[in-house]
Amino acid sequence: xxxxxxxxxxxxxxxxxxxxxxxxxxxxxxxxxxxxxxxxxxxxxxxxxxxxxxxxxxxxxxxxxxxxxxxxxxxxxxxxxxxxxxxxxxxxxxxxxxxxxxxxxxxxxxxxxxxxxxxxxxxxxxxxxxxxxxxxxxxxxxxxxxxxxxxxxxxxxxxxxxxxxxxxxxxxxxxxxxxxxxxxxxxxxxxxxxxxxxxxxxxxxxxxxxxxxxxxxxxxxxxxxxx
Length: 227
Ligand SMILES: N[C@@H](CCC(=O)N[C@@H](CS)C(=O)NCC(=O)O)C(=O)O
Hints:
It is built from eight helices and six strands. The protein is an alpha+beta fold. The protein folds into two domains: 2-73, Glutaredoxin (3-Layer(aba) Sandwich); 91-205, Up-down Bundle (Glutathione S-transferase Yfyf (Class Pi), Chain A, domain 2). The protein has a four-stranded mixed β-sheet with strand order 2-1-3-4, covered by helices on one side. The chain has a two-stranded antiparallel ribbon with strand order 5-6. Helix 1 links the parallel strand 1 and strand 2. Helix 1 (11-23) packs across helix 6, helix 4 runs antiparallel to helix 5 (128-147) and helix 4 (94-118) runs parallel beside helix 6. The chain is globular. Glutathione (GSH) binds at residues 10-12, 48-51, 62-64, 112.
């Protein structure tokens, strides 16, 4: 059986968990609930980050690489109205799709950098790199909104793409933490509509992102934080 190392709060790992659910793959959930030592993380990946996936003899890290592997290795798609994309990138839009995905991942990296620095005592205001990171989020959302055809479609019309899933994971991550960031999604109506539709999907509901701030130790069944 496959095995996934992750933390409940990681948007990169959440996107991988959503893709595993979309394909209908069972896996051992190696959820970290305490901060691992450097050696423990290094045993899983030299990047010392989550997620890491094990499938047979194969060990993969980097969330984009993991989902590319999953989509191409496991072609089965449960019969739902809007299925998960067959491939990560459409052959006829290869470079456009790759560019869009990399840009969404840069959004995730900027967002998690802001988050990780906040919890180690460095806020956005007055920190030039974090101010630029926050500005980056707005520019990327603007560019992504322009790239969507209309309010009824995702990045790959006719299916749910990894682009849709990762963008949802990253944006909802920012909104579920007191980072001092207001993404003002009303300025990006096509992105906002896409994320609202995705919120209703079983795979996202069964892998939720919940409110977190220092002091939250667990959650009630409905996601209410327990301090
Ligand atoms: N590029 C990586 C980013 C993963 C990442 O940033 N993971 C965070 C959690 S959201 C992490 O493990 N941070 C710990 C660290 O960087 O030391 C991916 O796509 O998998």
